[in-house]
C-alpha cells in the first residue's frame, strides 16, 4: 500500500490566465505511515487531496495509488479505483441524517456489490475499530461531534483502502476530542497499513505524524517533521 505523486502540476483557469494550484509536487507516502501536510488557506492543500484522490486530473505528472498509475485510466476506471482503494475523511462528516451509524457504513459496501449479511458484519467490525459499536443504532443527531467524526473515519475505511486522505478532521472539535481523533487515525493507519495523508492547519496535532511537509503557493516545503525532510517521502 502506498501513494506517490511525481512532478504533479495542476492549474485552473483564472480571468483568462491560468492559476497554479500545485507546482511540480513530488510526494511519496508508504503504507502504515502518516504524512501531515500543513499550510494556510489557499496554499494548495485541497488541490493536493483532490489529485491524490483521483478526483481531479493534473495538467502533468503522475499519480500512483497502491502500484496503479492512474494517469491513463478512464473516468470509469478511476471511479472504481477510488471506490476500492481510496478512503476520504471529509472535514465535515456529511453523514446521512436518516441512517444509523451502522447503515452509514453499509451503504459504502453495498455500492461495491457485497452481500447484505457480510456487509453488516463488516460494518459492525468497522464501528468496533473506532469505539462506536455501542452506538451502531444511533442516527447522526444522536451523536456528539467526536462520535460523528469516528463514524466518518470508519466509513472511509469500510472497503479497506490502500490510501486514506484526511481533510482537517479536527476543525469542528475541541482540542481534546481533536487529539483523540488524530490518535485514532494514527493507530488505524499502523494497524491497517494504509498510506495516510492528513491535511491540517493545527500544528499542535503534528506530533503523531511520521512526516510533516508544508505547502505554500502550491509547492511542498520542509514542514518541521522529525527528520526535517523535504517534500518527498522515500519508498518503504
UniProtKB/TrEMBL annotation:
GO molecular function annotations of the record: ATP binding; ATP hydrolysis activity; transmembrane transporter activity
InterPro entries assigned to the protein according to its UniProt record, in alphabetical order: AAA+_ATPase, ABC_transporter-like_ATP-bd, ABC_transporter-like_CS, ABC_transpr_LolD-like, MacB-like_ATP-bd, P-loop_NTPase
GO cellular component terms, A-Z: plasma membrane
Domain of life: Bacteria
Keywords for this protein: ATP-binding, Nucleotide-binding, Transport
Keyword Transport: yes
Region annotated Disordered, chain positions: 217-236
ABC transporter domain: residues covered: 3-236
Protein name: ABC transporter ATP-binding protein
Biological source species: Streptomyces genisteinicus
Native organism taxonomy: Bacteria, Bacillati, Actinomycetota, Actinomycetes, Kitasatosporales
